[in-house]
Structures are given as structure tokens and as C-alpha cells.
Amino acid sequence: MQLAKPRVLMFGWEFPPYSVGGLGVACHGLTKSMVRLGMKVTFVVPRAPRGAKSHFLNLLVADRVSVGREDVDRIEGLKIEKVDSLLMPYMNSTKYSSLVEYLKKRGGTIDNFIYSSDSGNFDSKDQYGVNLFEEVWRYANKAAIIAKKEVFDVIHVHDWMTFRAGIVAKEVSGKPLVVHIHNTAFDRSGGNPGQREYEIEKEGFEKADKIIAISHHVKSRLIEQYEVSPEKIIVAHNGIDSEDYCFKSSERHIHNKIVLYAGRVTLQKGPECFVKAAAKISEIRDDVTFILAGGGDMLSDMIELAAHLKISDRFVFTDWYNKSEGEAVMNMADVFVMPSVSEPFGLVPLEAMLQRTPTIISKQSGVSEVLVNTLKVDFWDIDEMANKIVSVLDHNSLKTHLIEMGEKEAKAMTWDKAAFECRRVFEKLIFEYKMSEHYY
Fold first, then answer.
1. Residue 92: CA atoms inside 13 Å, Cβ hemisphere, count?
2. Torsion angle of alpha carbons 392, 393, 397, 398, nearest 10°?
3. What residues contact residue 66 under an 8 Å CB cut-off, 6+ apart?
4. Distance between CA atoms of 212 and 232, rounded to whole angstroms?
5. 391: how many CB neighbours lie within 10 A of its CB?
6. Which of the 8 DSSP states describes residue 115?
7. Do 347 and 371 touch, CB atoms closer than 8 A?
8. Is-contact 384 378, C-beta < 8 A?
9. CB neighbours of 335 closer than 8 A, spacing ≥ 6?
10. Which residues contact 133 (CB under 8 A, 6 or more apart)?
11. Domains with residue ranges and CATH for the chain
């Protein structure tokens, strides 16, 4: 039976040019490749931040996506729908409640705040849920309306805050549901997930017709912690859009060697291991500056830890940074370190390799399953991490090898492989549903 190219209704919570984390970058790269393979994609996102309105609000009202750093271009076959929402990447109940309370104190006025509004005013009590989980359900209610009016063959959702939306869309449409899991509650919480998040994830995995995991690391989590059948899961590793990254010689205002951490400063990412490794290196060398680039709930703790270890003068803390700032600091770095405690995949090492920066990554990352031209270390082995950093700084031959071969390896890791796996899953499910009583 010859099938038409799949029409995909996809639910996420971020999409470039506004991306707080790797999920938005992943969705952008994946959907571009899916469209190149002939699939039709409708991507549903929450409302954009006001700061991104010159790009992102156009995306919400027109069939356009950002394909470059500054340009907005049309991609045939990709349609984006908006849902008014306060959902944001990596949000938890506390952050959500704080945001709602802030809006209430402002009299319900959202203008000039994080999210832009068509009217500039709203009643926050009516417009948004009283807590994060109610907001997830509100998003799901909007998903039901969208699923009734859109024409599609398969539903594709990304991570836990969209699972209810996918489940409801499946219930009202009778179409198959594919769950794409990038990050579980166990990864986000350091092994101690909130019960309600866990229950939403587990229900999503149970209701899904197929699960796509971004690494074997994630697949193992699903089997061990959520009791998902291995046969229900396929692994499709992430890729990267190499044309979005290039090496540019940056002017260095720091004459020391530069060792870089770049990412969210939170337990999952292992910033404490980085600071402790820096202390080890500082015992034997005084020509190294450590940059901890990023914001997060542990940033103040890391500043205090550096002070406690008496290495504050060796550190630069940047807090949150934008893409151009990230590229500049990456190009300056002599080595990039990703010491993640639990990393479902990890796109930043690929970004570093494309910008000709040697990388050291934890063995507890999904990207370590596919990368060869990098150094790998257990996140907890502070001595070995320090030794590997010093080896890259001291041995030009090693550094050159990691630069040259790493760049080639990263360029070969495109999104096309993941998109092809998605299409294969979609086509099989669509065929099965058309042959069953569930498809109508």
C-alpha cells in the first residue's frame, strides 16, 4: 500500500528564535529535516516572549520559521499554531506560581512582561491556570480544539508538559500518538522526581503508540523507571544544523588558557564537578581562567563554592547568555567541559566541535554513545576530569586532533537520520491505524 507523506500535528513548548534550552533547537532541526523528507508539519507552541516578537510572533501568525541567526524565512510544509500559555521550558510548579503571582500584582497587565499579548491586558485568574499542572490541562484543552479542526495523520509530542495535549488530541481524533522523550523527571530532578510529573510522564508512555527516545540512556530510564516495554521504544539520536555554527576568531581579553562550562547551572548539568575540577587544576597552575556561562538555580551556590575553595579570582560567571554571546565565548575557549550528572543527549558538545573547540564530556550523557573524537570521563571522577583538561591544555597534538576530527564528526551528525526514523515510525503507525477500527 502506497502511503502519502505523513501529515504531523506536533506539540512542543518552545521553538526558535526563542529557545531557553536544547529542546527548541532540537525541534527546529528535526522539523526542518522532516519537511525536507516531504512531511507536512503543524507545530503548536505556547505564546512567545515579548523580546522575540520580531521573529517569533510572526511565526505564530504566519507559516514562517527562523532558518538563520537573524533571518526569518518560509519553509514549505511547516505550519505553526499558537496557544496562549505560560508554559516555559524547564518550568516547575514554584516558578509557575511565582509568575502568576507577579502578574496578579501588576493588576493582570501582561504588557512589557515576558509574554506579549494581542490586547496588552488580561485577567490572569481566567487566562492562566492556578498552578503548573492546571496549566498543562489547559494546554490540553486547547489541543483538543486544534485536533478537531486540523487535518493530520499522526500526533507527535515532546516531553512531559505536552503529553496531556497529545493524549487528548488522540482521544478526539482517533489518530496515533508518538511520544518523543528528550528528558525524564528522573534526569531533571537528580533521581527524585515529583509524583505528579512522574504520573503524567508514565501515562504518556502508556497511551503512546510508539516512543522515540533520543538516546539509549533515555531508553534505559523508560524501561527501568517507567516499566515501558523495550519493543515500544526506538532510539533516534539528535543531530545538529552545522550551517548555523562556524568558527570565528574572537578577540581575547583574557590571556590565560580558558576552560569553559556552558549551560544551565543546575544539578543535572554537574556544575559542582566543574568547580571542584577547577580547584584541582588551580593547585598546580596559575595560567588558567574558568568560565561558567549560564544561569540556573545553582548559580549562587557555585559562586559561593568558588569563594570557599579560594578560586574566585580564577572564575568568570556570566549568568544567562544569548546565542551570539555563547558563540563568542565558545570560540575563545581552549577546551569545553560538559560534566553532566545525567544528560539524556547533550547538544552543546556538538556546537563546540563545530566551532573548533576541543570537548570533554561525561560518560553519563547520551551524546557519549555516538561521539568518538572527544574525551570522556565519569562526572564524579574529579581527578580524572582535571587530568583530561590539563592534557588538552598541554598537548597541542591532542588538541589539534580533537579540533580537526571533532569538527568533521559533528558535521556528519545531521538531523536527517532522526527525521527518517520518525517518518518510518509515522508511516507504519498510519498504515496500522488505517487498517484498524481506530482510524476514522
1. 10
2. 0
3. 16, 17, 28, 55, 59, 72, 73
4. 9
5. 15
6. B
7. no
8. yes
9. 258, 259, 260, 357, 358, 359, 360, 389, 392, 393, 399
10. 93, 196, 200
11. 7-239+415-434 (3.40.50.2000), 242-412 (3.40.50.2000)
Beta-carbon neighbour count of residue 201 at 10 Å?
22
Neighbours of 203 (CB within 10 A): 14
Rounded Cα gap, residues 278 and 294, in angstroms:
17
Separation in Å, CA 41 to CA 77, 170, 220, 381: 6, 16, 29, 44
Distances, alpha carbon 356 to alpha carbons 100, 136, 249, 440, in Å: 43, 40, 10, 51
What is the per-residue pLDDT for 100? 56
Looking from the CA of 29 toward its CB, the CA atoms found within 13 Å total 22
In a 10 Å sphere around its CB, with 0-12 CB exposed, 13-18 middle and 19+ buried, how is residue 268 labelled? buried
Which residues, other chains included, contact 67 with Cβ-Cβ below 8 Å and sequence gap of 6+?
32, 73, 75
Indicate the residue type of 406.
Answer: G
**Distance of alpha carbon 138 from alpha carbon 161, whole angstroms:** 11
The C-alpha R_g of the chain, in whole angstroms, comes to 22
Per-residue pLDDT of the chain (440 residues; tens, 9 = 90+): 456 789 999 988 776 665 556 677 888 889 889 988 989 888 887 654 444 332 222 232 222 223 333 333 334 554 555 455 555 555 555 555 565 565 556 554 333 333 332 322 333 333 444 467 777 877 787 788 888 888 899 999 998 888 999 999 999 999 999 999 998 988 877 778 888 889 999 999 999 999 999 999 999 999 999 999 999 999 999 999 888 776 666 566 678 999 999 998 999 899 999 999 999 999 999 999 999 999 888 999 999 999 999 999 999 999 888 778 888 899 899 999 999 998 999 999 999 999 999 999 999 999 999 999 999 999 999 999 999 999 999 999 999 999 999 999 999 999 999 999 999 999 999 999 888 765 55
Residues contacting residue 354 through CB under 8 Å, at least 6 positions apart: 240, 242, 245, 246, 247, 407, 410, 411
3-state helix, strand, coil in the chain (%, to 5): 50, 15, 35
State how far the Cα of 362 lies from the Cα of 380, in Å rounded to an integer: 9
Phi, psi of 169, rounded to the nearest 5 degrees? -60, -35
Contact at 8 Å (CB) between 123 and 138?
no
Q: Partners of 291 in the beta sheet? A: 260, 316
